[in-house]
Specification:
The protein contains 11 helices and 8 strands. By secondary structure, the chain is an alpha+beta fold. It folds into 2 domains: about 150 residues, D-Maltodextrin-Binding Protein, domain 2 (3-Layer(aba) Sandwich); about 110 residues, Periplasmic binding protein-like II (D-Maltodextrin-Binding Protein, domain 2), CATH 3.40.190. Strands 1, 2, 3, 4, 5, 6, 7 and 8 form an 8-stranded mixed β-sheet that branches. α2 links the parallel β1 and β2. α5 packs antiparallel against α6 and α5 packs across α11. The radius of gyration is 25 Å and the shape is globular. The termini are far apart. The relative contact order is 0.18.
Length: about 300
């Protein structure tokens, strides 16, 4: 009988210790950030190792297109497990423009996210993605501006969809010119289309030798292109750029962890070494009247229009 009592007492003690260990571990288990992204993959969580180690959190990345993110958030409502949305283009922000996102101003002191730029519907711009021109060093095709691709050269691109952002820049500039420039605008855009040829990947291990117009992220992530020593990349003087954006999902289950992620990115916002992983360049600060700058807000407004 005493043995049975001793056994039950031991079992009760072990049960209590096990329950305590679960209670202690549970808060840590809940410290997880779920990111839905159209350019990040689960393996990319390694780039945030510094944050995960410091804050003792886990980061889960769900890769899906912007329209799929929109569908998922609408379907799940407040029951979604997604905490943060991270997209690679103003086109993605445009796709999600009818989705409500969490205001974060009240969760931060003034100037705490100084490295990011907040725009409409509570989106944060976190990095630029310039449209670059790339050609072979020994090629005769060496344009220095986007306009030349509409008149003097044959060009191509491995990511044509993103060029809608570039076209929006062109529309904006013509809108700002005095007088009626619609014909000139149409000629510009028609010439860009007429001078476009089919993109060729290249045979075997040989990368494409074509004259390219593409986003910097697309170039840097295309290993065959990026490894070509003879390929030159130029950033036109009047540079057009797309933007990477992130937004917090309303009622995010792990808002504290989401805030930690925003603060982490803010600290890395001007680190070229960190941003290079994603094909980004820093947002930078252009003083009024100096440099070439068009607000991404103005580009967003033009993305739904077509010429």
């Amino acid at each position: 009988m005493d043995r049975i009592k001793d056994f039950l007492l031991l079992a009760l003690l072990v049960g209590c210790l096990f329950a305590c260990s679960i209670d202690e571990a549970q808060p840590l288990a809940h410290k997880k950030l779920v990111i839905a992204s159209d350019f990040l993959y689960p393996k990319d969580a390694k780039f945030f190792a510094e944050l995960t180690k410091k804050e003792k959190i886990a980061i889960e990345i769900i890769h899906m297109r912007a329209d799929s993110i929109q569908y998922r958030l609408k379907k799940d409502g407040f029951n979604t497990n997604i905490d943060l949305v991270f997209v690679q283009s103003l086109l993605g922000i445009k796709t999600l423009e009818n989705q409500t996102f969490q205001p974060v101003k009240n969760g931060f002191s003034d100037g705490e996210l100084y490295g990011l730029k907040q725009i409409r519907n509570n989106w944060f711009l976190v990095g630029k993605d310039p449209f670059v021109i790339s050609y072979l060093k020994d090629s005769l095709d060496k344009p220095s501006s986007y306009r030349e691709l509409s008149s003097d050269y044959l060009w191509t691109s491995p990511n044509l969809a993103s060029l809608e952002v570039l076209k929006a820049y062109v529309r904006f500039q013509f809108q700002k010119k005095p007088g009626n420039n619609q014909k000139e605008l149409k000629d510009w855009l028609r010439g860009l289309k007429d001078h476009r040829v089919t993109y060729q990947e290249g045979a075997d291990s040989t990368a494409s030798t074509q004259l390219l117009l593409l986003k910097y992220s697309a170039y840097s992530k295309n290993k065959p292109l990026a490894k070509m020593k003879k390929r030159k990349v130029i950033f036109p003087k009047q540079l057009y750029s797309d933007y990477f954006g992130m937004a917090v999902v309303p009622q995010a289950k792990n808002y504290a962890v989401t805030k930690s992620f925003l603060l982490f990115w803010n600290e890395k916002a001007n680190s070229s070494r960190f941003l290079k992983h994603f094909g980004m360049t820093a947002l930078g600060r252009i003083k009024k009247g100096k440099g070439f700058y068009i607000s991404p807000e103005e580009i967003l407004a033009l993305l739904s229009k077509r010429n």
